[in-house]
Amino acid sequence: MSEQDNTRTVQEAYAAFGRGDIAALLAMLDEGVEWVTPGPPEVMPTAGTRRGREGVAEFFSTLAETDDIEVFEPQEFIARGDKVVAIIKCRTRLKATGRAVDDELVHIFTVRDGRITRFREYFDTAAAVEALRGAAAQAGVSG
Q1: How much is the pLDDT for 134?
Q2: Domain range spanning residue 80?
Q3: pLDDT tens-digit profile of 83-139?
Q4: How far apart are CA 82 and CA 91, in angstroms?
Q5: Per-residue model confidence (pLDDT) at position 139
Q6: Which of 18, 72, 141, 142 is close enough to 136 for a disulfide, judged by CB 3.0 to 4.6 Å?
Q7: Reading across the β-sheet that carries 100-112, which strands appear in turn?
Q8: Within-domain flag for 142
Q9: What is the DSSP code string of 8-77?
Q10: Is 43 part of any domain?
Q11: Is residue 143 part of a domain?
Q12: What is the number of domains present in the chain?
């Protein structure tokens, strides 16, 4: 597929996410998809590597339980070969603390034959950890 087709696939995945249609997003993934989100999993429940559609479904379920996404705006797409890089403006409010985290995310997708086979995400994990550790402090737990 062309770089334009790969970019369109990623844009369609974001559109499904924006509508809250996680089932449609999952249908766009390869069965063996690898989904990687940075951060210490003991502090950030969404962090880690997940495999397969079930693993990614668990990621989105956890995200819905922990975060209210107030802003999620793709700003730019860069495609080369089977890779699509997206730069996202994001504002998330943590349900545990009510604290907001403003960030710029970088998402790197690998797209093959119209399916997303790999996702890697990069963002300021230190800001997220600080906001989440605030939740542990409020609960009287040391982090």
Answers
A1: 63
A2: 3-136
A3: 999 999 999 998 988 889 999 999 999 999 999 999 999 998 888 888 877 644 444
A4: 28
A5: 44
A6: 141
A7: 48-51, 29-37, 115-122, 100-112, 83-94, 67-80
A8: no
A9: HHHHHHHHHHHHT-HHHHHHTEEEEEEEEE-S-TTT-TT-EEEEHHHHHHHHHHHHHHHEEEEEEEEEEE
A10: yes
A11: no
A12: 1
